[in-house]
Amino acid sequence: MNNYLKLLCFSMILFSFGCTHQTNTLFTEGKWIDLTHDFSEETIYWPTAEGFKLKTDYEGITEKGYYYSAYSYCSAEHGGTHLDAPIHFYKGRNTVDEIPVSQLIGEAIVVDVSETALANPDYQVSVADFEKWEASNGKIPDSSIVLLRTGYGKFWPDRVKYMGTDKRGPEAVKDLHFPGLHPDAAKWLTENRKINAIGLDTPSIDYGQSTHFESHQILFEHNVPAFENVANLEKLPVKGAFVVALPMKIKGGSGGPLRIVAYIK
Ligand SMILES: [Zn+2]
């Protein structure tokens, strides 16, 4: 190897070392926002489901002198901040573990209907709400995660204010009042736009008074999963937030506890 080549190799090695010592700039300029309610005995579940349970298996100083804690938990798939997989309301569609990760990570848009919805707990987000959003912000980008801000997140964990009743059991379902997505809007979104997922700050993507859960059926037929009981939507911009929404990977599951976060600049 002649001297010139030796010098070239040496500087390339130096250059590559230099690169590995550069500061990581990914996700350093903005901040992360947690869109997840914590899981505890207070966590809101559907009136027919049992709540979250945490059992202490061990907590304290062991015989060997070190501290140790471990717990077991028990939970329905659909409670607290969680994901609905398409199989939840449509046979043959994706189970939780089958949803591509690429569908659960990406840019979000926030449609704020809180002014109207807080005045009417039976409000259903309409096609007109999406058209209004587009009139100000442009067409909903392909692969968007659509987040609906009804404003009800601020009532968590007060069941009466959040969902209309704190009664439990099948007879309480008729007393549920909270906003959701109108089936016509679910149809419009799935047929005219290409969204990856949808979420909102209420217990269900269909409003509280729904009896046949049509929006679930329409979205899930198109393999669009839903995030329910999402927190802190008032902290997000109307567009540009980067969302990561990863549920527990339950094989064959119809839904599961979800940790959803957003990065904003
Ligand atoms: Zn659900």
Largest beta-sheet characterization: 7 strands, mixed, barrel
Helix content class = 10-25%
List SSEs in N-to-C order.
HEEEEEHEHEHEHEHEEE
How many angstroms separate the termini?
A: 50 Å
- The CATH superfamily name is Putative cyclase
Indicate the CATH architecture. Answer: 3-Layer(bba) Sandwich
> What's the helix count?
6
Could you tell me the strand content as a percent range?
25-35%
User: Which ranges are low-confidence, i.e. pLDDT below 50, for 5 or more consecutive residues?
Assistant: none
What general outline do the C-alpha atoms trace?
Answer: globular
| Cα-atom radius of gyration | 23 Å
Tell me the strand order in the biggest sheet: 4-10-9-7-5-11-12
Give the number of DSSP strands: 12
CATH class: Alpha Beta
Bound small molecules, which ones? zinc ion
Structural class: alpha/beta
CATH topology assignment? Glucose Oxidase, domain 1
Task: Please give the domain count.
Answer: 1
What average pLDDT do the residues reach?
A: 94
Q: Which descriptors would you attach to this protein?
A:
265 residues, alpha/beta, Glucose Oxidase, domain 1, seven-stranded mixed beta barrel, two-stranded antiparallel sheet, 6 helices, 12 strands, 25% strand, globular, binds zinc ion
Describe this entry's structure for a reader.
The protein is of the alpha/beta class. The protein has one domain: Glucose Oxidase, domain 1 (3-Layer(bba) Sandwich), CATH 3.50.30.50. It has six helices and twelve strands. The protein has helices at 3-20, 114-119, 127-137, 159-163, 183-192, 214-221, and strands at residues 31-34, 53-61, 67-74, 82-84, 105-112, 124-125, 145-149, 180-181, 197-200, 226-228, 239-247, 255-264. The strands form three sheets. A seven-stranded mixed β-barrel has the order 4-10-9-7-5-11-12. It has a two-stranded antiparallel ribbon with strand order 2-3. A two-stranded parallel sheet has the order 6-8. Strand 11 (239-247) and strand 12 (255-264) form a beta hairpin. The longest helix has 18 residues, at 3-20. The mean pLDDT is 94.
